[in-house]
Amino acid sequence: MKAGDLIHMPGQTLAKGEIPSLGIVIDDVPQFRHKHSTRGRIGIMWVENWGKVDYEPKDWLEVVSEAIPVEA
Predict the structure, then answer these.
(1) In the chain, is it the N or the C terminus that has fewer CB atoms within a 10 Å radius of its CB?
(2) Which residue spans within the chain are E strands per DSSP?
């Protein structure tokens, strides 16, 4: 999982009529590790909450589409 990848949260609980969330990885360096856990959180900008970065457990996310590398 790297910055620019399109992701979703497969275990997400949805109310009737809701569509699954999609987001873009903004910060792929794991943050906020707990001393008893190896699971870090990465920065995601969710489509329905554009402009705000949420830090989600990397283990909860799945890549839908990988970012296309940009040649300099």
Answers:
(1) C
(2) 6-8, 22-31, 41-46, 54-57, 62-65
* pLDDT given at position 45: 95
Tokens 């590398």 correspond to what residue? 69
Structure tokens at 28: 């792929």
Q: How far apart are CA 27 and CA 2, in angstroms?
A: 8
Q: Please determine, for residue 31, whether its predicted confidence score (pLDDT) is greater than 80.
A: no
Question: What global pTM score does this model have?
Answer: 0.78
Residue owning tokens 């569509």 = 19
**Cα Rg of the chain (Å, integer):** 13
